[in-house]
Design a protein that fits this description.
The protein is mainly alpha-helical and 410 residues long. It folds into 2 domains: 1-177, Alpha/alpha barrel (Glycosyltransferase), CATH 1.50.10.10; 182-404, Glycosyltransferase (Alpha/alpha barrel). The chain is built from 14 helices and 16 strands. It has helices spanning 7-18, 22-35, 46-64, 67-80, 115-118, 122-132, 136-150, 178-193, 199-215, 245-254, 262-281, 315-327, 331-346, 372-385, and strands at 43-45, 94-96, 102-103, 113-114, 161-162, 217-219, 225-227, 229-231, 234-236, 238-240, 291-295, 298-301, 348-349, 352-353, 397-399, 405-407. The chain has a 3-stranded antiparallel sheet with strand order 1-2-3. It binds 1-deoxymannojirimycin. 1-deoxymannojirimycin is lined by residues 178, 182, 242, 313-314, 373, 377, 401-402. Keywords: Calcium, Disulfide bond, Glycosidase, Hydrolase, Membrane, Metal-binding, Signal-anchor, Transmembrane.
């Protein structure tokens, strides 16, 4: 949006709490109490506000018990609700917080809504209904699920775009880059968060993952397992940094998988972690590019100049952490430490940390941006990677796609 909404403060709160930085946490709380105001004439992304703000506020509430976070989360959620006023109930991608007017991006298949965006609201909205006793939030996301269940899925894959006016898919192109991927992630996490009672979500996850494995996952000539992108009827042998989260997702979903394929999914998670580590290791800075190819002799390396940047993204470290929790193989801590050192060496600047424009250049230039997910996710996952398993045990907590922990609803 175009207003000062303190995204970094809100997104980083639970990280401060988890790290025991209580003075800084209190400062953040004070700022939120006094300054965080949602009656601004600003058009925001429903998805981004949900995962960063509502997720961040809910996690801060659950960890600290401070009412102000719950109150702000509910106020903000109320401002997002008008986005659901479409002919189908599939929300617009953007909403003006003041007027409640919603719209979609022109580039998204002729004004469609994006699956990963409207499919990544479930966890937070279920918690909002749980905390308020008001079913409105739950009903909105269950309506989306029911609608998706009824639709046809080419090859078992969900296309990326859905027109909220007609209820029809946009272009039939399906791939699991992370923004698309967080829909699958949220199916698995809906099941985990419900204490494994939401078996409908688990079934949808299992079906989707089988289709993804069949159609999108391949091995390179050099033996690296990668998740490609389906485009214009063929599989592009390219994987995005965003997609590297899937290694952790496969590991997290291993237990409870269909036909008792737990070992298989844990192995798949390990292979994706390995591939993503290779994408880091094959650069000059030991930081991963935004996207990397597997073509002929090219193995896990970015080819295009505009895919060589690293913007402090968390997905690879996220996967190291999940793999560490499930296997305790020390290589994941070693790989996490390599990334930590590289971030410290190449991304640290006087005012914080910055993204770099080319991970293959020995004299990198900065993009001069510290994304809010660096504090919300990258540093949190690193901290957890080097902490004991009893800090936020996965039996009791489920992390939203922005790394905000929400409790399992027993
Ligand atoms: C974050 O906002 C979330 O992790 C989201 O799921 C994907 N993009 C960024 C981090 O790369």
């Amino acid at each position: 949006g175009n207003s000062q909404m303190g995204a970094t403060i809100v997104d980083a709160l639970d990280t401060l709490y988890i790290m025991g930085l209580h003075d800084e946490f209190r400062e953040g709380q004070e700022w939120i109490d006094k300054n965080l105001d949602f009656s601004v004439n600003s058009e925001v992304s429903v998805f981004e506000v949900n995962i960063r703000f509502i997720g961040g506020l809910l996690a801060a509430y659950y960890l600290s018990g401070q009412e102000v976070f719950k109150i702000k989360a509910v106020q903000l959620a109320g401002k997002l609700l008008p986005a659901f006023n479409t002919p189908t109930g599939i929300p617009w991608a953007m909403v003006n917080l003041k007027s409640g007017v919603g719209r979609n991006w022109g580039w998204a298949s002729a004004g469609s809504s994006i699956l990963a965006e409207f499919g990544t609201l479930h966890m937070e909205f279920v918690h909002l209904s749980y905390l308020t006793g008001d079913p409105v939030y739950y009903n909105k996301v269950m309506h989306i699920r029911k609608l998706l269940q009824k639709m046809d899925r080419p090859n078992g894959l969900y296309p990326n775009y859905l027109n909220p006016r007609t209820g029809r898919w946009g272009q039939h192109l399906s791939h699991i880059v992370s923004i698309k991927g967080s829909f699958y992630e949220y199916l698995l996490k809906a099941w985990l968060m419900s204490d494994k009672m939401d078996t409908e979500a688990r079934k949808m996850y299992d079906d989707a993952i089988e289709a993804i494995e069949k159609h999108l996952i391949r091995k390179s000539n050099g033996g690296l397992t990668f998740i490609g992108e389906w485009k214009n009827g063929h599989l592009e042998r390219k994987m995005g940094h965003l997609t590297c989260f899937a290694g952790g997702m496969f590991a997290l979903g291993a237990d409870g998988s269909r036909d008792d394929k737990a070992g298989h999914y844990l192995q798949l998670g390990a292979e994706i972690a390995h591939t993503c580590h290779e994408s880091y290791d094959r650069t000059t800075l030991k930081l991963g590019p935004e996207a990397f190819k597997f073509d002929g002799g090219i193995e896990a390396v970015a080819v295009r100049q505009n895919e060589k940047y690293y913007i402090l993204r968390p997905e690879v470290i996220e996967t190291y952490w999940y793999m560490w929790r499930f296997t305790h193989d020390p290589k994941y801590r070693q790989w996490g430490w390599e990334a930590t050192q590289a971030i410290d060496k190449y991304c640290r600047v006087s005012g914080g940390f910055s993204g770099v424009k080319d991970v293959y250049s020995s004299s990198p230039t900065y993009d001069d941006v510290q994304q809010s997910f660096f504090l919300a996710e990258t540093l949190k996952y690193l901290y957890l990677l080097f902490s004991n398993d009893d800090l936020l045990p996965l039996d009791n907590w489920v992390f939203n796609t922005e790394a905000h922990p929400l409790p399992v609803l027993h």
